[in-house]
Amino acid sequence: MEARAISYYQRVSPKKINRILELIRNRDVPEALNILTFLNKPTKLSVLKTLRSAVANAINTAGKVKVSEKDLFVKQAVVNGGPMMKRWQPGPRGSASIIRHRTSHILIVVATKEKEGVKK
């Protein structure tokens, strides 16, 4: 079983988010939450919020099957670039320099672990 969460238009560049997503890809959810909780980067909050949303989606869509955080792992964690906000600033010799405020779209997919010897 899979569940996903998407967070659109985050005001962080995709390069910074991707460094954080590399730490949690293919890890168990409790371990990924632990890594994100104690990571010393301010951009972790949008990733942490998206991961918690994906876990909540997995628990709610499971139905009668009991699923907990311990049964899940991060199957996919992807960041895509969103639209850029462009601003202008005075540059050298009277020219204009552009400032690009980058945005990101974060996708996190969590799935249940397959038990050994059991195929679906």
DSSP summary, beta strand count: 5
The low-confidence runs, each spanning 5 or more residues with pLDDT under 50, are: none
Q: Order of strands in the sheet with the most strands?
A: 1-5-2
Please name the CATH architecture. Alpha-Beta Complex
How many helices in DSSP terms?
Answer: 3
Kindly report the name of the CATH homologous superfamily: Ribosomal protein L22/L17
Shape field? elongated
Between the first and last Cα atoms, what is the distance in angstroms? 10 Å
The run of helices and strands is EHHHEEEE
Assign the CATH topology. Answer: Ribosomal Protein L22, Chain A
Strand content: 25-35%
Count up the domains. Answer: 1
Instruction: Kindly provide the name of the CATH class.
Output: Alpha Beta
Rg computed from alpha carbons, rounded to a whole number of angstroms: 18 Å
Task: Give the structural class.
Answer: alpha+beta
| Integer average pLDDT | 92
Give the biggest beta sheet.
Answer: 3 strands, antiparallel
